[in-house]
User: Fold these one by one.
Assistant:
Number 1:
Amino acid sequence: MVDRVKFQLDDKDVPTTWYNLAADLPGAPLAPALSAATGAPLGRDELAALMPEPLIDQEIGTEREFEIPEPVRQIYAMWRPAPLFRARRLERALNTPARIYYKYEGVSPAGSHKPNTGIAQAFYNKEAGKTGLVTETGAGQWGSATALSAAFFGMTAKVFMVRVSFEQKPYRKSLMETYGAVCTPSPSIETAAGRAILAADPKSPGSLGIATSEALETAAGDPSLGYVLGSAANHVLAHQTVIGQEALRQMELADDYPDIVIGAAGGGSNLAGLAFPFLGAQLRGGPDVRIIAVEPASCPTLTRGRIAYDYADTGRVGPLFRMHTLGHSFVPPAMHAGGLRAHGIGPLISRTVEDKLIEPVAVAQTRCFEAGVQFARTEGILPAPESTHAIRVAIDEAVRCREEGRSQAILFGLSGHGHFDLVAYEKYFAGSLEDDVLDEAVLAAADASIPAL
Ligand SMILES: *Cc1c(COP(=O)(O)O)cnc(C)c1O
């Protein structure tokens, strides 16, 4: 008999609702987003310019569950429920008494968790009469998910991709084009926001904040286009909770429960997706879980940013959110986990960190690649550079368990595969991947861009 390592549910077990942590949040309600134009809390009218009605309900609602529309569930069922594995081979390699589990989202057609929300947003935009989607992407995972989602609903897709990633990962663009999308490196000359950045710095590597400004501007100029977003927003985090809801049931199949839940945090959506259903259970009287948000040391939003109202985009086109932020002018160094290069983070993640329900840590990228390689050689899956952040901390925790002689259950989110990220692995093996040291002056200058409210 082999050790049971794979915990797989049936098609019928695809969740029927998305979970909304706002329903179980202790203390004051989540601080509202503010209008960039008036500084007042963002009303439904202004939100209606950004998203269809059902998404507004999910963005500001406090009910515990939102029903997943059947057409969305049908598409989810093409690859969901996603498998949950026990990492027996990694455990043995680490000689740890810890029980390590991972939930693998790389089984989606786009290779990450991002289609969980892409499909939902495409569905609602199509229902609202939009014929195309426009968005920004960092590493290209969200752009790929948007392109896929648009294709499934017969819509066009326009994707502004952060230039440094566009150059590092040419095949992400090819994938988007195969799905029928148009992918443009950002900053571009197609928008006023992009032209302004290029005028100041013709060699700008771009950033998620800049690409967001370009996408928002494009959407605002064409009513047939729906703007969709890949992370951070409350409704996006809710859509991702299919991950954690499935994981709760799969841990039951494993006859276990995690002491620790770990996820890489960019905008916070895969971490929230995995961890919020466990956190919600804890807040309603269930077992305590230690939740760890792992971010790159070169974009240390949670560990070195501060909590303030700030813009999500560099061009200050969109609303302000109360969140941990490094300042909307922050342009992170060109590290290889492109999906983790955001100056801000989802307000719900920020709030749970503030309330000490989630613990943030920052890790250097070479240590992450080291963990990613060890994972590939033991478990066989080539992880996305973003996901290696979660693996790094899972390994560190498993080693701590060994040193303390404790057997804890560790569950981490393997948010995607790294098949399009081999240039980064190649650099790691060549020894040319470096750990950027952030200059205090750079952090202080970005911090100064946070508006005084
Ligand atoms: C986008 C992405 C992330 C980071 O985004 P979150 O919204 O924080 O989840 C992490 N891993 C992968 C594979 C991604 O594509």
Note: Residues 112, 114, 141-142, 231, 264-271, 339-340, 384, 386-387, 415-416 surround pyridoxal-5'-phosphate (CB under 6 Å).
Number 2:
Amino acid sequence: MTEPSATARSPQSSPAPSYTTAVTVDDFRRNLAAIRARIDAAAERAGRDTAEIRLLPVSKTVPEERLRTAFAAGITQMGENKVQEAQRKSENLADLGISWSVIGHLQTNKAKNVAAFADEFQALDSLRLAEALDRRLQAAGRSLDVYVQVNSSGEPSKFGLEPDDVAAFLAALPAYSSLRVRGLMTLAAHTDDAARVRECFRIMRRLRDAALQAGTIGDGLLSMGMSGDFEAAIEGGSTCVRVGQAIFGARATPDSHYWPESSQAK
Ligand SMILES: *Cc1c(COP(=O)(O)O)cnc(C)c1O
């Protein structure tokens, strides 16, 4: 694949996109269709089959009433960063049968919550947590799809394993038999420097390819790309884009609430 020019766009050249809030079923259908079209176009540019790219709508901060509308528009899986919020929504919307994906850092003492309701956990980043999850899952007679989170940007307080630690970590996971390892997850650098963002995706793909060689990563899926960078992520090999604001609308809660460093990362 040809690499884009290494010249960074200046931050001023790309004003923050404005995301309009989806309220009606039609709003959601329109936003979904627009995102899916952009996914298709990015896959086409990269010479990839668009069918292998999953769109995971990220519903954090969106109230339950609007999630019912989103569901009516065809959104049946939802990603949430915080486990308490996710669990509350899963209970109050239990009649819908939504598939819940927890995509944010988890403290070990919350493992039992995730084991109780989540269909997927994308932010596995320590063996202590793997152990705690496995114990709770065994007790519940469940298993869980997991992605290992990697800090691909080198930003100091981003969650996730250092790239150098990924191979040994993956090799240790078969000990936790209720965890089904599906792939790797990352948040790329929070910056308008397109070359830096693409370098994060490149690191992830290299780690994934090495793990496929080693046979430690199941299907070798790659969860990367958000509202601001999902097209570059697809060109970089993503098989799961996690898109919140471009579907639901702008969030009032600053991103620093979810990844504390982003406010300083520019
Ligand atoms: C919020 C969040 C996203 C989606 O971000 P948007 O800017 O709303 O697309 C993706 N991944 C994680 C881990 C998140 O917390």
Note: The longest strand covers residues 179-186.
